[in-house]
């Protein structure tokens, strides 16, 4: 009798938790503002599934074999995918890469090294030693 | 005291020891997290001293891990019956020290989250790539060896397993020495004698750690150690310490013969500040001469022998600090025959001060080894069978 | 044999000979054409094409022309690659000016030192993941996607060419990605070379033209002609690393 009561209580808690989750999600749906007038590599549905493999394979070709230009260029991706609000692919909540990656909970490693802000080159100068 | 009362004291002490070990390990992991989060800028390591205090600890742990298994090898491979009861403890210590050392090494990486990359991309001209296989193979072989020792039906395979583990660790420690021996450009390294030097160091340090661990575990369990066995192991320690001294002398004498190496030798042995001090006082005097005297006295007490073992460990850290950090502090000679200055500190002796985070990480590795030993001894039958002091034999 | 047979045999012989000559022509001609193409054409790689080992990029540094105290090459490299130019022990320096004084004669000299782009690089030998690698055209690079930050290559380099990034960076140039926890060194301005430019930032900035960049495999290039005329040395030549950077006047 007691065991059954306990099982029923657990089930109730689980169902309620699930319902609460579905109603007001803690993580906002991805919302981003980019220039969607062109599409260069592949349709969005395919890109969502395969962009990580494309990036990984192409970066090896670029770094090790020096294959450049066109679809190989990450700078070209960032130039379009930079958000209209603050001009970067990462940083603001509506930044392109950021918003989907926050939603699916996959940490972005790329921008620890790659510059997420196109046009940054023009603004920088070295401090003299 | 009855056997049950003894057991409850041991259990209380276990939880105390485990708590201390876990706390120190936690501090070590905190150090690793701070280093990873802020970058190595908060450590004392620089573009000149690229391997620092964590590597001193890690290399001690890894080299001692290989050597501590020697106690088991002397029993299993070389047939000395007195060593056989200690074989299981020796194996446990090997696994524990290796885990601690590898933990420190991997957490000090610039990108520790990329250990998966290290496990999937191999460049086999690199000793580090070979080490991935040598170290995992060591774990597997020691586990296999322990199984043959602890499972009655498998005991007849303990000799082949022991021989395999023995050969593997010779290769492994040769590899550890070769990490440095293969550095063509550094005056402190680039020497084939480093491989046998590391083998000798592993035997000395491992034996010292075994003596200390055995004494500590006896104190915890309330058992009395067998004094004869301790004396035998201590005498063996003396032989190994002498062997290390031999290789160190050969290494320095040969270097002194090469005119191009004299400046480096002068730096390490004479006017390099902390490095000659650590070498002569820390390693030669405290780490070699005093232990030899203590160990080879005819009526050495147990306390003297354990003191000798502890001093060998102190000398080991001094020696590694001079070897690893002193070897990097001396500037690379890019323009022989010229006096060199630049904004990148060419021609300058590099300075280094360990940061608290590095020390925490290193000590955390020791704590990890400590925890594994304590938990292992509590849960499984690693200690040699001895009658606890004060219990009536049943 | 009859006359008809003889003429048939002769005709067959002529046919076989003619076919063989045509075949030879067909087989050899593309080879000749490829050799023409392979001699390094100036300009960028065609998009999608890998670099080739027909080319070996290198530098010739004339210490006689190098001015003591001048830092133009260093400043240019910092500007080009997004380095902040600070010189703390933990800061990256891809190129530095070294002031030399001969211990016996007191003669002074000055030269920049950077990654020597060896043909037998010790840093490539010791890298556990293969992140430190030599590209087909001779440029030694770090693949920062694969670098785990172990710093073994920094221990191995005879020229102290490599730097480790000790802190988080945010002001990288788009063409020069660099980040915390990885090792880096002079890239011979690979991002410029792959765009078709035929000079590095340091070579371009040097006011006395002490640094020449070019293809060591092309006997007609300026660098090859100079190396054939004047005595040049490699740093630590005793190590036999066959460096891509040569020095004159040292």
Furnish the topology, listing elements before pairings.
The complex is a heterotrimer of chains A (129), B (394) and C (250).
Chain A: H1 2-23, H2 44-65, H3 74-81, H4 96-104, H5 120-123
Chain B: H1 3-38, H2 53-68, H3 70-76, H4 87-107, H5 115-120, H6 127-150, H7 158-181, H8 194-221, H9 227-257, H10 262-271, H11 274-296, H12 302-329, E1 338-342, H13 356-379
Helix pairs in contact in B: 1-13, 2-4, 2-7, 2-8, 2-12, 2-13, 3-4, 3-7, 4-6, 4-13, 6-7, 7-8, 8-9, 8-12, 9-11, 9-12, 10-11, 11-12
Chain C: H1 3-38, E1 57-62, H2 72-81, E2 95-102, E3 108-114, H3 122-126, E4 132-134, E5 140-142, H4 152-156, E6 163-164, E7 183-184, H5 190-193, H6 201-205, E8 211-215, H7 222-229, E9 232-233, E10 245-248
Parallel strand pairs in C: 1-10
Antiparallel strand pairs in C: 1-8, 2-3, 4-5, 6-7, 9-10
Question: Can you describe this structure?
Answer:
- The complex is a heterotrimer of chains A (129), B (394) and C (250).
- By secondary structure, chain A is an all-alpha fold.
- Chain A has a domain at 30-119.
- Chain A is built from five helices and no strands.
- By secondary structure, chain B is mainly alpha-helical.
- Chain B has one domain: Formate dehydrogenase/DMSO reductase domain (Formate dehydrogenase/DMSO reductase fold, Up-down Bundle).
- The radius of gyration of chain B is 22 Å and the shape is globular.
- Chain C folds into two domains: 1-38; 57-248, 2-Layer Sandwich (Alpha-Beta Plaits).
- Helix content of chain C is 29%, strand content 17%.
- Chain C has helices spanning 3-38, 72-81, 122-126, 152-156, 190-193, 201-205, 222-229, and strands at 57-62, 95-102, 108-114, 132-134, 140-142, 163-164, 183-184, 211-215, 232-233, 245-248.
- In chain C, strand 4 and strand 5 (140-142) form a beta hairpin.
- The chains are: A mainly alpha (129), B mainly alpha (394), C alpha+beta (250).
- Chains B and C meet through helix 5, helix 6 and strand 1 of B and strand 2, helix 3, helix 4 and strand 6 of C.
- Strand 1 of chain B pairs antiparallel with strand 2 of chain C, so a sheet runs across the interface.
């Amino acid at each position: 009798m007691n065991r059954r009561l306990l099982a029923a209580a657990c089930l109730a808690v689980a169902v309620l938790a699930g319902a609460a989750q579905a109603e007001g999600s803690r993580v906002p749906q991805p919302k981003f503002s980019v220039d969607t007038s062109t599409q260069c590599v592949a349709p969005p549905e395919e890109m969502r599934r395969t962009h990580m493999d494309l990036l990984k394979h192409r970066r090896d070709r670029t770094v090790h074999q020096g294959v450049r230009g066109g679809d190989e260029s990450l700078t070209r991706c960032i130039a379009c995918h930079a958000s209209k609000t603050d001009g970067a692919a990462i940083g603001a909540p509506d930044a392109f890469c950021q918003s989907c990656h926050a939603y699916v909970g996959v940490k972005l490693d790329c921008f620890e090294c790659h510059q997420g802000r196109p046009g940054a080159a023009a603004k920088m100068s070295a401090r003299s030693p | 005291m009855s056997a049950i009362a003894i057991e409850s004291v041991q259990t209380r002490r276990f939880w105390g020891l485990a708590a201390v070990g876990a706390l120190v390990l936690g501090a070590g992991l905190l150090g690793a997290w701070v280093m990873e989060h802020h970058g190595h800028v908060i450590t004392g390591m620089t573009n000149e001293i690229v391997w620092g205090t964590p590597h001193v600890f890690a290399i001690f742990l890894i080299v001692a891990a290989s050597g501590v298994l020697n106690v088991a090898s002397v029993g299993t491979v070389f047939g000395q019956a007195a060593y056989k009861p200690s074989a299981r403890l020796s194996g446990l210590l090997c696994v524990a020290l290796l885990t601690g050392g590898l933990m420190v090494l991997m957490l000090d990486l610039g990108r520790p989250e990329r250990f998966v990359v290290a496990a999937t991309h191999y460049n086999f001209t690199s000793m580090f790539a070979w080490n991935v296989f040598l170290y995992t193979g060591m774990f597997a072989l020691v586990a296999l060896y322990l199984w043959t020792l602890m499972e009655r039906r498998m005991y007849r395979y303990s000799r082949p397993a022991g021989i395999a583990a023995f050969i593997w660790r010779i290769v492994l420690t040769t590899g550890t020495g070769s990490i440095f021996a293969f550095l063509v450009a550094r005056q402190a390294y680039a020497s084939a004698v480093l491989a046998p030097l590391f083998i000798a160091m592993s035997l000395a340090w491992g034996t010292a750690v075994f003596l200390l661990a055995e004494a500590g575990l006896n104190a915890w369990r309330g058992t009395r150690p067998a004094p004869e066995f301790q004396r035998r192991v201590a005498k063996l320690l003396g032989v190994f310490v002498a062997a290390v001294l031999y290789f160190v002398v050969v290494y320095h004498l040969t270097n002194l013969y090469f005119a191009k190496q004299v400046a480096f030798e002068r730096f390490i042995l004479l006017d390099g500040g902390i490095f000659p001090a650590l070498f002569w006082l820390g390693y030669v005097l405290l780490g070699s001469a005093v232990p030899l005297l203590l160990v080879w006295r005819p009526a050495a007490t147990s306390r003297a022998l354990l003191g000798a073992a502890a001093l060998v460990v102190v000398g080991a850290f001094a020696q590694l600090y001079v070897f690893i950090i002193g070897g990097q502090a001396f500037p690379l000679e890019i323009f022989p025959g010229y006096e060199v200055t630049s904004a990148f500190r060419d021609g300058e002796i590099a300075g280094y001060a360990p940061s608290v985070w590095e020390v925490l990480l290193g000590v955390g590795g020791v704590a990890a080894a400590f925890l594994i030993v304590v938990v292992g001894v509590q849960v499984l039958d690693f200690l040699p069978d001895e009658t606890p002091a004060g219990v009536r034999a049943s | 044999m009859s006359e008809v047979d003889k003429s048939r045999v002769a005709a067959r012989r002529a046919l076989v000979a003619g076919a063989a000559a045509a075949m030879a022509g067909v087989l050899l001609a593309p080879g000749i054409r490829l050799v023409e193409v392979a001699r390094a054409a100036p300009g960028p790689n065609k998009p999608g094409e890998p670099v080739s080992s027909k080319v070996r990029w290198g530098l010739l540094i004339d210490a006689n022309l190098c001015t003591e105290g001048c830092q133009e090459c260093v400043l240019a490299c910092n500007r080009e690659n997004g380095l902040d130019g600070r010189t703390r022990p933990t800061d990256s320096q891809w190129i530095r000016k070294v002031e030399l004084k001969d211990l016996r004669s007191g003669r002074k000299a000055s030269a920049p030192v950077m990654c020597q782009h060896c043909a037998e690089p010790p840093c490539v030998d010791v890298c556990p993941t293969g992140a430190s690698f030599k590209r087909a055209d001779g440029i030694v690079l770090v693949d920062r996607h694969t670098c785990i930050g172990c710093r073994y290559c920094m221990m191995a380099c005879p020229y102290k060419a490599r730097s480790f990034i000790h802190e988080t960076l945010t002001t990288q140039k788009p063409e020069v990605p660099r980040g915390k926890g990885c090792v880096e060194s002079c890239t011979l301005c690979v991002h410029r070379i792959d765009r078709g430019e035929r000079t590095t930032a340091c070579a371009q900035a040097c006011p006395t033209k002490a640094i020449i960049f070019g293809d060591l495999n092309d006997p007609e290039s300026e660098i090859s002609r100079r190396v054939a005329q004047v005595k040049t040395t490699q740093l630590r030549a005793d190590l036999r690393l066959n460096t891509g950077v040569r020095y004159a006047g040292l």
